Amino acid sequence: MSTRFEEPVEILLVEDNPGDVRLVEIALRELSTDTELDVATDGTKALETLSGCLRNESVPDLVLLDLNLPRMGGFEFLDEIQDQPALARIPILVLTGSNACEDVAESYERAANAYLTKPADPAAYIEMVEAVADFWFDRVALPSTHA
């Protein structure tokens, strides 16, 4: 897989489960694409991270968002992002344990770009992250999120 990004792909993972964070880290290390992963354990910390990124004029290329988070959950995070035009262009992929139809529908209603259910099998989880990277880093045309 060859990447169209000249610099490392910056990813913000919003996830409170250390095991899931570890699986994403493992999968990203296996990629030929150079990535930088920042982790926030809830929506509030994620918004703080993104505010800092805005001050530095460099926001992530992609956000991977769990829905079930402490303090500020995924749906509230999606609402907050849409209220900030500088952040609303960042692709946000919901990556969650729920496969409930209402969660899928609500995620898209709140402008998520994709909805993925976390596989239970670690190998399948890693394969899913690799498929996400192939699609979002190599195949999709995205607006620049960097100033």
TrEMBL record:
<dbReference type="GO" id="GO:0000160">
    <property type="term" value="P:phosphorelay signal transduction system"/>
</dbReference>
<dbReference type="InterPro" id="IPR001789">
    <property type="entry name" value="Sig_transdc_resp-reg_receiver"/>
</dbReference>
<dbReference type="InterPro" id="IPR011006">
    <property type="entry name" value="CheY-like_superfamily"/>
</dbReference>
<feature type="domain" description="Response regulatory">
    <location>
        <begin position="10"/>
        <end position="133"/>
    </location>
</feature>
<feature type="modified residue" description="4-aspartylphosphate">
    <location>
        <position position="66"/>
    </location>
</feature>
<protein>
    <submittedName>
        <fullName>Rec domain</fullName>
    </submittedName>
</protein>
<dbReference type="InterPro" id="IPR052893">
    <property type="entry name" value="TCS_response_regulator"/>
</dbReference>
<keyword id="KW-0597">Phosphoprotein</keyword>
<dbReference type="Pfam" id="PF00072">
    <property type="entry name" value="Response_reg"/>
</dbReference>
